[in-house]
Amino acid sequence: MKFEGTQSYVATDDLKLAVNAAITLERPLLVKGEPGTGKTMLAEQLAESFGAKLITWHIKSTTKAHQGLYEYDAVSRLRDSQLDSDKVNDVRNYIKKGKLWEAFESDERVILLIDEIDKADIEFPNDLLQELDKMEFYVYETDETIKAKKRPIIIITSNNEKELPDAFLRRCFFHYIAFP
Fold it and tell me: What is the rounded average pLDDT of the residues 68-91?
């Protein structure tokens, strides 16, 4: 797999080098730049170029890292238990898979876009360090470990609105996209 750009996305030599190095080294690619420089489009075009599925996780100021893994809906389970529903016996009925889980369980290599990571709180990137390093996470409710079948190609975008933690930056391959 080698990224050379696409018909609708002209990548600079430096950007192609960064993308291909991140893929080869199996590290997330952190792409910074001003809004409108094509950071999100890079992931879309990378998916198109490789014929891979694109999984997009748009980050907001209220997004928590665990939401990318999964969310457990204890309130619905409690309600169902009060209504004598048969669903309540299987905790899996109350687990909503996050974007990382979706990427990890894919049989094909996917492109995972974590879009605008700098919008979340300062601890958000650090909370994902272990999962992005090991390509696995533990689900307490079901007592199972979810491991990536195929390591996804991870593109992380940032508008440079706030500084990201050093520990997170050390684990990423970095590229800055300037305005053309």
Answer: 90
